[in-house]
Amino acid sequence: MTATDADADAGTGDRVDDLADRAAAARASFDPPADPPDEERALSLLREGFGPTVSLYVECRTGGDPVRFGQAEFDRLERAMNDWLELYAACYGVEIDADHTVRTAAEALLDTHDLPAVARILTGVPE
């Protein structure tokens, strides 16, 4: 299905809202590890947040009729993805200001099929 900004797919919009809300809540409640790295926590953030966020984009672009995101919806999706990346890096004791496109992340995921590899590519963490 193709949609305009005004009539974006409600199911997709709800999923974007859920992912964005989860990212914001994770960011608000995040306490950096006292003794980084916390690799287990970093991987958990990738599996529970970053991966589903990028996967939604891939699904909307490759599954049947492409879904066109409204600008606000797309911005929320990208902000959520970058929030997850910032939390991932913080688990290694590294502060970053992530500003990646979800398309770049999706292409890297399709190339590698490996969430940690994509996170390393986008954040440089761990070195």
Structural class: mainly alpha
Largest sheet: none
How many angstroms does the end-to-end distance come to? 41 Å
Instruction: Report the count of strand segments.
Output: 0
Low-confidence stretches: 1-8
Oligomer description: single chain
Order of secondary-structure elements: HHHHH
Overall radius of gyration: 15 Å
Write down the domain tally.
1
Helix content: 55-70%
Q: Helical element count?
A: 5
Mean of pLDDT: 91
Overall 3D shape: globular
Proportion of residues in β-strands: under 5%
Structure characterization notes:
The structure is a single chain. By secondary structure, the chain is an all-alpha fold. The chain has one domain (7-123). It contains 5 helices and no strands. It is globular and about 45 Å long.
Give the helices and strands, then pairings:
Layout: H1 10-29, H2 39-62, H3 71-90, H4 102-112, H5 115-123
Helix pairs in contact: 1-2, 1-3, 2-3, 2-4, 4-5
Give a short synopsis of this structure.
The protein is mainly α and 127 residues long. It has helices spanning 10-29, 39-62, 71-90, 102-112, 115-123.
Features:
single chain; 127 residues; mainly alpha; 5 helices; 66% helix
